Amino acid sequence: MRIRQHIPNIITCCNLLSGVVAIGFATHHELYMAYLFIIVGAVFDFFDGFSARLLGVANPIGKELDSLADVVTFGVAPSMMAYVSLSNGLGYWAMVALLMSAFSALRLAKFNLDERQTSSFIGLATPANAIFWASLSCFVESCMHPALWVYVAVLLLSLLSCYLLVSEIPFFSLKMKRLDFREYKLQGLLMLTAVLLLVFWIVGYVLYRWWLPAGALLITIYVLINLLAALLKRA
């Protein structure tokens, strides 16, 4: 009985450790491995809540631990990846990208207190932001001598991410409680897009060693859909 109660927290700790490992790889400029461990952390993040509901052992400690783990894996790790990828072109100015870790922590704190975010999100979810930056950082790192304006544009994009994380813009959840694509049309469309982007990425990398920022493109589509929906709702 006691072991069952600790299973979700053990999974959450695996999420946190994945984030720590990702940070370690990022500091050694191994961004592809850092990206991999952020994805591993996202998988653990999904299954800790799932296992807690399945076993009926949800508790307040698990909720707080989950947020702490998410700050590391989806806040600090992608921010460090962004800093490392931009430091070659911007030097110390690349540290501006580290602001995302603070805004990710603020977003998670708001999420824990906001009762409106039960089935959807207010502001961009930290895992989505993390996948975007992990993917984009690998893409920047793979480019041969990007122009200075590219580094500046990506740095400004990090400030936009900070805003989206704590904004009042509604975002639909990417999680599906059941495999019913009639009910989860947008989620199903994004899943199909993810599969197509993955295929293009595999073909491009295997044949041409070309790094397609598939994760960044997918999250960009997700953000644009939600921004469009918000604008239509206000119109």
Fold and architecture overview:
This protein has a single domain, classed as CDP-alcohol phosphotransferase transmembrane (TM) domain (Four Helix Bundle (Hemerythrin (Met), subunit A)), CATH 1.20.120.1760. The protein contains 8 helices and 2 strands. The chain has helices spanning 2-27, 31-55, 60-90, 99-113, 126-142, 148-166, 185-208, 214-234, and strands at 120-122, 170-172. Strands 1-2 form a two-stranded antiparallel sheet.
Write out key terms for the chains shown:
two-stranded antiparallel ribbon, globular, 8 helices, Four Helix Bundle (Hemerythrin (Met), subunit A)
List the helices and strands and how they pair.
Layout: H1 2-27, H2 31-55, H3 60-90, H4 99-113, E1 120-122, H5 126-142, H6 148-166, E2 170-172, H7 185-208, H8 214-234
Helix pairs in contact: 1-2, 1-3, 2-3, 2-5, 3-4, 3-5, 3-6, 4-6, 5-6, 5-8, 7-8
Give the beta-strand count.
2
Number of helices: 8
What's the gyration radius in Å?
18 Å
Q: How confident is the prediction overall: mean pLDDT?
A: 83
Oligomer: single chain
Share of helical residues: over 70%
Describe the main β-sheet briefly.
2 strands, antiparallel
- The proportion of residues in beta strands is under 5%
Order of helices and strands: HHHHEHHEHH
Short description:
The chain is mostly helical. The chain is built from eight helices and two strands, in the order ααααβααβαα.
